[in-house]
């Protein structure tokens, strides 16, 4: 049970438990172990020793820039892409060698991949035809009701809007009641307003259906806002997986620190639970020793106008609820986010203070 | 005006040509291996469908029978009729010189029933249907519909390939029979007009020649059907994301199907002469 510590990080959906409350997770549904894939002619592996697990009913997001291997990982879990090494286990059974049609894992495609020659009801009922006419019809009605499209069963897919089409695709995927649903950037073809709305709908629908899900996306807002846990991928490797707030507050690498939100990276010398930095001795979020790089969130830095100070504000962006400052200090440029209060203009001298503990990076 | 680049020295061209030859041979070997695998897949799914007839996608089968069979009847019949006319006319001109006019009936019977009826029907069907199969499956592949199907636990070989190939196996012999009748009719008409051989005389002469010719021709039809269907479906499943590969594979599937039909026809000739048919 090497995965135990990871499983313990399982976070209950925010609407069900108080924030930060952690409890024993549901049973493990999917275990991905050291999955590796190298494409012909490529020097670097597209996916390298990626391992994580997903609990029953859990919503996990894989987040990373394009080309980081997140879609290849998803396609290996679905069975479209054969892994060069590693294994995929579903409810304890090894499914690495099974074709997609025998895995029973749902998949929602980027371009929804609805069958254009079938009606909405025909699409939704496609995977449950073997149940027999009456049972299939009942299931289709249930699913259309769930996604809020009852009454549109007779329409053709091209007669629906993009958001509705994506909901039909989701209903089609959920109809056979798969234990796990994979979503490959399903919102990327929707416009911004519709995207925010649809992703919350999708989260609610998946939770209502009781299916676990893995969402692949390059949009951090989407990943942090919908998933119970987020895995950050970079150059084929899974850098870190954890609850969104854990990733934000405790990034393990400089990549995660700067990809999830924004970070200032400082050099320092750590000694146990604190470190010597250009801003004096600061407490660390976890123990470290020797020369380290430290992540400091822009909102952790406080700035006070002080004409005698060395630091100079070189840029400012007022955004209403907060404001961004770029501050030149001792040969480096730091990003500072503060409330709308301080009236500091470009060129002003300021003194910087860091509050709260800083995060040592590996 | 740009000068043409001077040809590379012969020393360099020979290894290059050899490399190209090797790659082409490898590609053909891979294609043959893939097609053999598809044949196995088809036979397996057909066996499963025979054991459990309820699993056969009947609606799709009937739809494809209409598409590849019924809708091809006019073009096949017209083509065969004209071939009959041409054979009778050309044959008559030659045979008249030897006073062997009446043998034009044998000429038409043998060539249409043994060879041309089935071969030309298969070539027309290869052009019409292999390309259609590739385009249909390729478009589905591009829109990820086939992947979607697989995640819904539907086997594409059973849902897409089986009904298509089976529809060809059912309809190609029927089309061949119609082509045979039309070819003979065209021949009979021309023989009547040009040589004065009455339809009744044509019929008598025809029935004297062996019925084997019909069997020999018709036996090839299901084999051609399987080959055309599998080549079309295989090419469709090879389509990758781009429209470019769809176009390339659609034309490739027609060329492959026609070539395969002619090659297999030659093999049949050798086989029949060995067994003495």
Structure description:
- The complex is a heterodimer of chains A (362) and B (277).
- In chain A, helix 4 (133-146) crosses helix 5 (162-174).
- Chain A is elongated, with a radius of gyration of 24 Å.
- Chain A is 23% helix and 35% strand.
- Chain A has two domains: 4-104 and 178-254, P-loop containing nucleotide triphosphate hydrolases (Rossmann fold, 3-Layer(aba) Sandwich); 262-361, Beta Barrel (OB fold (Dihydrolipoamide Acetyltransferase, E2P)).
- In chain A, 39% of the residues are buried.
- In chain A, the strands form four sheets. Chain A has a six-stranded mixed β-sheet, with helices on both faces.
- By secondary structure, chain A is of the alpha+beta class.
- Chain A is built from nine helices and 18 strands.
- With 277 residues, chain B is mainly alpha-helical.
- Chain B has one domain (78-271).
- In chain B, 84% of the residues lie in helices and 0% in strands.
- Chain B is built from nine helices and no strands.
- Chain B has helices at 10-51, 58-68, 73-96, 104-142, 145-151, 156-195, 199-208, 212-238, 243-275.
- Chain B is globular and about 65 Å long.
Layout: helices, strands, pairs:
The complex is a heterodimer of chains A (362) and B (277).
Chain A: H1 4-8, E1 28-37, E2 47-55, E3 59-63, H2 70-78, E4 85-90, E5 93-94, E6 106-108, H3 120-125, H4 133-146, H5 162-174, E7 180-184, H6 192-209, E8 212-217, H7 220-226, E9 229-234, E10 237-242, H8 244-249, H9 254-259, E11 264-277, E12 280-296, E13 301-305, E14 311-318, E15 323-329, E16 332-338, E17 349-354, E18 359-361
Parallel strand pairs in A: 3-8, 3-9, 6-7, 7-8
Antiparallel strand pairs in A: 1-2, 1-4, 4-5, 9-10, 11-12, 12-18, 13-17, 14-15, 14-17, 15-16
Chain B: H1 10-51, H2 58-68, H3 73-96, H4 104-142, H5 145-151, H6 156-195, H7 199-208, H8 212-238, H9 243-275
Helix pairs in contact in B: 1-6, 1-8, 2-6, 3-4, 3-6, 4-6, 4-8, 4-9, 6-8, 8-9
